[in-house]
Every structure is written in structure tokens, then in C-alpha cells.
Amino acid sequence: AVLVTGSKGQIGTELVEYLRGQYPKVIATDIRGGDHYLDVSAKDTTLLERLVVENDVGCVVHLAAVLSAAAERDAAAALRVNNGGTEMVLEVARRHALRVFVPSSIAVYGAGTPKRARENSPARPSTIYGVSKVYGEMLGEYYHERHGLDFRSLRIPGVISSKAMPGGGTTDWAVEIFYDAIRRSRYSCFLSPTTSLPMVYIDDLIKGIATFIQVPRSRLARSTYNVGAFSVSPANLAEAIRAELPFDCDYRISALRQAIADTWPESLDDSAARRDWDWNPTFDLRATTTTMIELLSNRLASAERAIS
Ligand code: VAH
Questions:
Q1: pTM (2 decimals)?
Q2: Where would I find the NAD-dependent epimerase/dehydratase domain in this sequence (predicted)?
């Protein structure tokens, strides 16, 4: 069985659904509910260990985290959830010899990193979220070296998806823009038009995570890999949307989130993931735009009908 923390989040919502097509049992936990209430920031391993033992869990997918902008607003809470939660999950995994997947992020890279980041590019973040993600990677690799724990991590770019909103991220604009394009044909973007960041469409990401957690360890040359798909700026994405809908984008820059985005790389070199475990994203900017507009139009239209 696989246990997922943060199962109600942007990635968790769609990953749980996908994994349920592959595994006999997927235990979904979240502080907001799901199958089981689980607050990973509490230092109490009792509930997690009970779920692991009772359900014969072999792999934990630990998604619960406070994202970049929210983490700058409440550093103490973010460190409690991100660092404390990962500490707790790694310790339970060590005791029960579980495989562990903990997502990392392009946020581990800082201003001094080349704009096309490789795995061995400097990872000197200047955000609390980035610091907590480097910590997660380092602690997981320590558990791998010191205790033989099968720890795996992916440095994930911004995620574009339609079923659950991201919460408090710097790349949330790339999701919000589609909701506003459909609802009101306009969007006020909190990043500047030329801020180009690496992104991935959710279908590619969840297939990639599902592949990465089950590939034999012998194929992995490292615990942590970059994964990317395409890079896009608000101006590029606005143009791609305008090719399908009447749409206008203006800019009300958030100083906090622009400062965060400015430290991140524009693209990721993910050749190692493609070579070692066949990472192979298929959604480019156009396919992502077309699919998002189709899925959201249907969902928002049926939601309108439901309340009318
Ligand atoms: C964030 N969506 O914006 C997350 C992610 C690379 C961005 O880490 O914080």
C-alpha cells in the first residue's frame, strides 16, 4: 500500500486518484481531512505508524508542505510543517523500512544559480520554502547513506492543473490565469510579463511520480532529480490563451512573489531523469493551454448549472 500526506493539495488530489488505478490500497491523509486526518507538523508519530502497520504500507509519498509565498509570510509555521513533517516521516520510514518520496522544488536554487539549472548547480536558496526543500533533500540523503533508507525526491517546477488550486505558491498565477480567463476574460497577474519559469502539466507530473516511486533503485544514479517540461512567462501564456479565448492580462506585481521568482531558474536540465528512469513529459505550452481551457470550462459550466 502507498500512504500519501497532503492528499488534498494541488498535486495530492490528482496523484491519489491516479495511484488508486495502480495500487490495491492508497491511504490518503491530510490536515484538511481525506481518509485520515494527519497533521505532519505534530511530533506525534503514533497515528502515522498505526496507519503504516495496519495497512501494510510500503511507500510514503510525503506531499504535505507550506509553499513559497505562504512560507515567507509565516516562516515558523512553514519550518514546523516542512522540516518537522519530513523529519517525522523519515523517522517512521526508517523504523519500518519504507520507501519515501518527498518532492523538492526549483526553489532550492538561488540567485547565483545559472538560469538553466542542473542537479549539481548551486542550491543556495533565499526563501524559507527553498531552505526547507534543501533540508528535506539533505536529510533524506543522510537517511539513505546512514540507514539505507530508499529516499527519492524530484525538484518540481511550477505545476499547472485544474482539479485543485495550489495554496500560496509563487507559480499559482499559471493556474489562476485560466480560472479568470474563463470566468471574466481577464486576469491581473502578480508577476511581471517577462518572468519566465519552468512549468509542468499535472498529467505528466503524476505519471512521472508514479514511475519514479516504483522504478528499481538500481536504475537511479542519485536520490534527487530535476524534472521539467516547458518554460513560460505570463506574457507567453496570455498569448497562448488569447489564441483560444477573448482575453486580456494586466499586471499588479506582488513585490514578495516577484522577489521569490527572480531567484529561480528559467529552465531545468532534466536529462538525468530522462536517461535514468525515462522521464518523458508530453504536454507543451499549447497542449497544456488547450487542455486546461477544456477541463475548466466544463467544470466551471457544470458548477454554474448546479447553482442556477
Ligand atoms: C510554489 N508551486 O510556487 C510551488 C513550487 C516551483 C514552485 O515550489 O511555491
A1: 0.97
A2: 2-228
